Amino acid sequence: MFDTMTFTKVVGGFCGAFLVFLLGGWVAETVYHVGGESHGEEHQAAWVIEVEEEGGGAEEEETVDFATLWENADAGAGERVFNACRACHQLNGNNAVGPHLDGVVGRDVGAVDGFNYSGALSQAADVWTPENLFAFLENPQGYASGTSMSYSGISNPEDRANLIAYLESNS
Fold first, then answer.
1. Which of 62, 101, 72 is nearest to 85 (CA)?
2. Is residue 90 packed enough to be buried (19+ CB in 10 Å), middle (13-18) or exposed (0-12)?
3. Alpha carbon distance 82, 35 (integer Å)
4. List of residues 6+ apart from 94 with CB closer than 8 A
């Protein structure tokens, strides 16, 4: 009833299942991490799901110095951040769901011809300075209540500074 052929089939089945499990893990690592497998470099998550922590401790958030972030901003890293913006904005002078972002740094708020703004932005600021963009990109609804931009914002201050540097380099 239990001969060597049955035992071989059982062991082969377990080895095959383990191989599928290992290959699935390797594929998941490749898909969900930027850069794949690298030695000596820290992995950066491709998709981040932000979750608010409950009650933790009485830790205060450290204030972010925009001037320091702006000095160290990397336009190349900002290009990667801009990939999330591409769904609604373009850099070629054409409007999409949102207005084009050519020359947005230093441009008057609500100044793109042919785009129907909600009006909330012009009440929040006059010109898109790097500081105004930094605050707006953190929480668009909080910065300009009533804006039609439905994006929830970029919580990482370095990513916001890098994105602004990228937008300024494409002016």
1. 101
2. middle
3. 18
4. 100
54 versus 91: the higher-pLDDT residue is 91
pLDDT single digits (tens) 151-165: 888 888 899 899 888
Maximum distance among all Cα pairs of the chain, rounded to whole angstroms:
85
Task: Identify whether the C-beta of residue 118 lies closer than 8 Å to the C-beta of residue 97.
Answer: no
Q: Is the pTM of this model over 0.70?
A: no
- What kind of fold does domain 66-169 have according to CATH? Cytochrome Bc1 Complex; Chain D, domain 2 (1.10.760)
Interatomic CA distance for residues 22 and 25, integer angstroms:
5
Structure tokens at 93: 């002078």
**CA 22 from centroid of its chain's CA atoms:** 29
Residue 30 makes CB contacts below 8 A (sequence gap 6+) with 36, 37
In this predicted model, what pLDDT tens digit does every residue of 118-133 receive, in sequence order? 777 778 888 888 888 8
Sequence spans of domains, the chain: 66-169
